[in-house]
Design goal:
This protein has 20 helices and 21 strands. The chain is an alpha+beta fold and 553 residues long. Bound molecules: flavin-adenine dinucleotide (FAD).
Length: 553
């Protein structure tokens, strides 16, 4: 008989792992929380995140006059996910359960742990393909006061309290390489102990092995994250038939250790990995002027007014507008073989409409500094955006259009950008601004969205000619594809038990967070409504921690 070192082993101390460990320990179980990285990385990707959470029918929404409902959100989820495969059985069940959670217990559960939200609710993924198409019908992106670290904080606190009480123990620099399985039952893990590393959070750490380990438990919960930091794997899983070939150049929106190795390890041990071709990469990536991890890219969370141009300067067709339909625009870009695209805008638009995703890009919100947050209403461009305008390799800032186009061509090292095309696109667009109606669908959506007070006050500029010198200088931003989230994953049932290809659970093995496609092996289907990744970690981590605890004597 195997001697157990603990009741439950959790692999990965990101958000899903912290939640699972805290919940299992709350249920009285002893937990070992393993991570290949050092303690400085506690919280994983969630620490870097913007802290945006999908929540339905909240006080914040109601205060802004937004009428949201479970019915509307579930309809939005289904039109966005586009579930269409036999293996979408558990993903769909998880999606239903998650939307129930987001419309029910989620708000109160987080509030009870001290999580608060910024009063303005963001409108991510606005859709654009009509009422039956993908996208959020209403704003639902709730920004956590304290951004990503504010989401991690309560769960880290709970875990550390359990560490003090002796119920949870950390094992950092423990890289799991395999599962211990006897007669089909998962009862432990083995792997390498990596040498200590004092690199900063998110930086690549040493892979020098100093020892090995073998640990056994009543249950194992896998919360090892996705594949977005492993470009080779992203390319291998890329859905070429659906999206065209993967771009030759991509930047990374996640640290290098988000490498998918543990997911592959589980698959090799008999777990069913489904929907591996479903991924959520962004079309508005910019190279970080101050990188932390290799190929470090930042995603712009854009308001809707920038003009989006192909490499030669042709405006992208409706509905490929900033912030509308990430996958649809990605498909347009990749099937046309564009290596990059451009935003053309001006200072007035960048000031109000550019938010950069990430906790370190929004220090006012991350530090909960009310005075600095109020500065967003002032005249100056946000310091993090200004830093990119001054130092970002993808930014061109000039006073006149001929100078701007010259700068764009200098940035790419050839004459691909056609001045005449860009000038014509801008002139045609600007001719539509004089009336409060017109034939330009992008301007129509901008005007409609400004009916919502939050958008008018802090998010979207009043339509005005792009070339108006009073709104200048002009800005062009070269946009790269940025890898981020893994939508497919290990198939799990509603108890977070990992399933085998025959649909039967692998006894003793649970999974949560990105490695499980945030539940079921892909609860988002093809697309996300945003804010659903952190929320997916919270929900699936909670289920996995509770169910594993319930199954261990
Ligand atoms: C900049 C940025 C902004 C974001 N903004 C948002 C947002 O606003 N809203 C939202 O919903 N989502 C957002 N996300 C996405 C979200 O943060 C992630 O999807 C989520 O945090 C993933 O959590 P996880 O616990 O599943 O995995 P991770 O955070 O990746 O944690 C996995 C952990 O497992 C460890 N691990 C992996 N393999 C092994 C192994 N073999 N042995 C031991 N340990 C291992 C890793 O070291 C890591 O610590 C953002 C992400 C980023 C990077």
């Amino acid at each position: 008989m195997t001697i157990h070192d603990t009741d439950i082993i959790v692999i990965g101390a990101g958000l899903a792992g912290l939640v699972a460990a805290a919940e299992a320990a709350d249920a009285g179980k002893r937990v070992l929380l393993l991570d290949q990285e050092g303690e400085q990385n506690l919280g994983g990707q969630a620490f870097w995140s913007f802290g945006g959470l999908f929540v339905i029918d909240t006080p914040e929404q109601r205060r802004l006059g937004i009428r949201d409902s479970h019915e509307l959100a579930w309809r939005d989820w289904q039109t966005t996910a586009g579930f269409d495969r036999p293996e979408d059985h558990w993903p769909r069940r998880w999606a239903e359960a998650y939307v129930d959670f987001a419309a029910g217990e989620k708000y109160g559960w987080l509030a009870a742990q001290g999580v608060k939200f910024f009063p303005g609710v963001g409108w991510a993924e606005r859709g654009g393909q009509g009422a039956s198409g993908p996208g959020n019908s209403v704003p639902r992106f709730h920004i956590t006061w304290g951004t990503g670290p504010g989401v991690v904080e309560p769960f880290e606190r709970r875990v550390r309290e359990h560490v003090t009480a002796g119920r949870i123990a950390f094992r950092f620099r423990h890289r799991v390489r395999g599962l211990n399985i006897t007669d089909g039952v998962v009862h432990g893990v083995h792997g390498d102990i990596l040498e200590p590393s004092d690199v900063g959070r998110g930086e690549p750490s040493s892979r020098v092995v100093v020892d090995d380990f073998d640990l056994n438990a009543g249950a194992v919960i896998l919360t090892s994250g996705g594949i977005g930091g492993n470009q080779e794997l992203v390319r291998r899983n890329w859905p070429t038939a659906r999206l065209g070939p993967a771009p030759e150049f991509m930047i990374s929106g996640v640290p290098k250790h988000v490498d998918g190795a543990a997911q592959a390890m589980a698959e090799a041990a008999g777990a069913h990995l489904i929907n591996r071709d479903r991924m959520w990469h962004y079309t508005e990536g910019i190279r970080n002027w101050n990188p932390i991890w290799p190929m470090h890219g930042i995603r712009i969370l854009p308001g809707p007014s920038s003009l989006w141009l192909s490499p030669d300067g042709t405006r992208l067709p409706y509905p490929n507008y900033p912030g509308f339909d990430t996958l649809g625009t990605l498909q347009h870009i990749t099937t046309n073989g564009y290596p990059y695209t451009w935003f053309v805008l001006n200072r007035a638009i960048i000031k109000k409409e550019f938010t950069l995703s990430g906790s370190e890009q929004n220090l006012d919100l991350t530090d909960r500094d009310l005075r600095k947050v109020a500065g967003r209403l002032g005249k100056n461009v946000a310091p993090s955006v200004q830093a990119f305008m001054d130092q970002g390799a993808d930014f061109v800032v000039r006073d006149t259009l001929p100078e701007l186009v010259r700068g764009m061509n200098e940035a790419i090292g050839n004459d691909t950008v056609d001045y005449e095309k860009v000038a014509r696109e801008i002139a045609d667009r600007d001719l539509q601004v004089a009336n409060v109606f017109g034939k330009d669908p992008q301007l129509a959506v901008v005007r409609g969205a400004r009916a919502f007070i939050n958008e008018r006050l802090i998010r979207i500029v009043k339509p005005a000619p792009l070339l108006d010198p009073a709104s200048g200088p002009l800005v062009a931003v070269k946009l790269n594809i940025l890898t981020r989230k893994t939508l497919g994953g290990l198939e799990t049932d509603l108890h977070a038990r990992v399933l085998r290809p025959d649909g039967q659970p692998m006894p003793g093995l649970y999974a949560a967070g990105e490695v499980a496609g945030f539940g079921g092996g892909g609860m988002h289907g093809y697309r996300s409504l945003e804010g659903t990744f952190l929320g997916g970690c919270l929900f699936s981590g909670r289920v996995a921690g509770r169910c594993a605890a319930g199954a261990v004597d």
